[in-house]
Amino acid sequence: MNENIDFNMDNVLIDSEKAVLAIAMHSPKASFDILTQLNSEDFSLEKHQTIFEAINVVSQNSQNITITKLAEFLEDKKLLEKVGGVSYLSDVSGYFYTDEGFEDYVEIVFKNSIGRQLDRALIHIKQLRDSKSPIDEVFVIAQQKILNIKTDIKKDDATAVKETVVDVIKKIEALEKNGGLVNGVPSGFSDLDQITNGWQKGDFIILAARPSMGKTAFALNLAVNAAERQKGVAFFSLEMPKEQLVQRILSSVSGIESGSLRNAQGLTTEKWTRITAGGEQIKNMNIVIDDTPGITVLQLQSKLRKMKRDFGVEICFIDYLQLISSMSNKFDSRQNEVAAISRHLKKIARELNMPIVCLSQLSRSVEKREEKTPLMSDLRDSGAIEQDADIIMFLYRDAYYKTKEYNVGSDDPTDETDIIISKHRNGATGVVKVNFLRSYGKFIDQSKNI
């Protein structure tokens, strides 16, 4: 590196930008990483942005970048004088000595870029507040601007297959050593895990059913099963307050009828012992519940990111899709709005590298058919859900249509329930049969007893 570089704190950013540009000019190996990890907007000076773009274009047409080639390109675009002429290109070029440690310079440039983006966002938000814009609108714009700031340096996503196959074989070896145990977040249902191999990182999973089929109960079962296996769980309940959710979990864990917990009737000493033990068991579960009604997809993204950081959350449940709001007026129909929310949830799952299980309603068309088994076309509000989801599951209980109302005191308060996997992007589809113990809101494998 040029020995005349001034490392005074006032000049370190400009020197770092010059060093990054110089290394991109002279080192083909480092140039690839620099051009992949940074954008022209990441540079603070306009002339540095222009030079970076020139390097990017020239490098695509020539393996060797020289000051002459850059000068010719910029002159052709009538930009050479704007960047300070050949003399400034020579000055920048002089900052190259070695490409060793270039990552440090890239990080300085990138971190300062984040700071400038944040400053611009805050200024824009302040201007909106000063203009007396509606607070809801300001809040949504503020979230969008903050969340759109990328805080991680871009990496090249293209990977040679010879590298990927090594990772795949390692996963297979790990599975073999673990006796074929699931490598995702376990559902707690053996037949379901056999098909899915657990909920996989980055997957967007839809769980859909008509009302009263037990969507929320099943989602809570999945959440508890994951938490019992030491997984951090986030549960967004847009319809039911957290107290009711925890009461349902307590009924399932303790084996006390949900009706008895609701009205506190018939609670013997033995039942109180089970309730207390169930409460202690729940205390040890890493489940974080957010019951904000009408939450927006941006709020959900922000909260989930914080939950992952603060609570080690590894899987997210959302009850349910149609209650999430985009808080935007640009959509001409609710169907298009739900489609946008669905796409955003898939994006969040990929970005946070965790499975998101989202409950969804089904349209009333199911009730009008002779055959009540749900189909993917029955997903309410949006056909885009079908495209975005990695897994689509339906709950179907034939007994619901035969009795409509359940007699909890009947001799057999258990209903056979089908978990219908209609779409599985990375595996098989099929039907898994479980038993629903409706008095406790608990699903179990058919081979098990409560």
UniProtKB/TrEMBL annotation:
Gene3D superfamilies: DNAb Helicase, Chain A, P-loop containing nucleotide triphosphate hydrolases
GO BP term, example: DNA replication, synthesis of primer
InterPro entries: DNA_heli_DnaB-like_N_sf, DNA_helicase_DnaB, DNA_helicase_DnaB-like_C, DNA_helicase_DnaB-like_N, DNA_helicase_N/primase_C, P-loop_NTPase
Reactions the enzyme catalyzes: ATP + H2O = ADP + phosphate + H(+)
Protein's UniProt keywords contain ATP-binding: yes
This protein's record includes keyword ATP-binding: yes
Cellular-component GO terms for this entry: cytosol; primosome complex
EC top class named in words: isomerase
GO molecular function, one term: DNA binding
Pfam family of the protein (one): DnaB
EC number: 5.6.2.3
Keyword entries, A-Z: ATP-binding, DNA replication, DNA-binding, Helicase, Hydrolase, Isomerase, Nucleotide-binding, Primosome
Domain SF4 helicase: 178-450
NCBIfam families per UniProt: DnaB (TIGR00665)
Homology family: Belongs to the helicase family. DnaB subfamily.
Function, in words: The main replicative DNA helicase, it participates in initiation and elongation during chromosome replication. Travels ahead of the DNA replisome, separating dsDNA into templates for DNA synthesis. A processive ATP-dependent 5'-3' DNA helicase it has DNA-dependent ATPase activity.
Protein name: Replicative DNA helicase
Record organism: Spiroplasma diminutum CUAS-1
Gene that this sequence comes from: dnaC
